[in-house]
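pinned: reference chain
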Amino acid sequence: MLKITLSEKGQIVIPVELRKRYGLKKGDKLVIEDRNGSIVLRPLPKHPFAELRGKFKSLPDEEKLTTTLLKERALERNRGLHGKS
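pinned: its structure tokens
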């Protein structure tokens, strides 16, 4: 069992072993729950889009998705489908 000390401001330090085990880094959010007389800290899931970053990276000969989407938007504008006609 790990012991921690509550600071004057009500702050705690999560021991390094637990930070490493749960992949906690500066700025991560945690949920605090009162469960039957116990205080439970639980990491909030990271933003789902942040976890996908880089997973669908285009291959060197492929056009980037953002470029494709910008071209499609321009075509739609030219056809009068978006904005004022």
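why pinned: Residues 65-78 form the longest helix (14 residues). The helical segments are 16-21, 48-52, 65-78.
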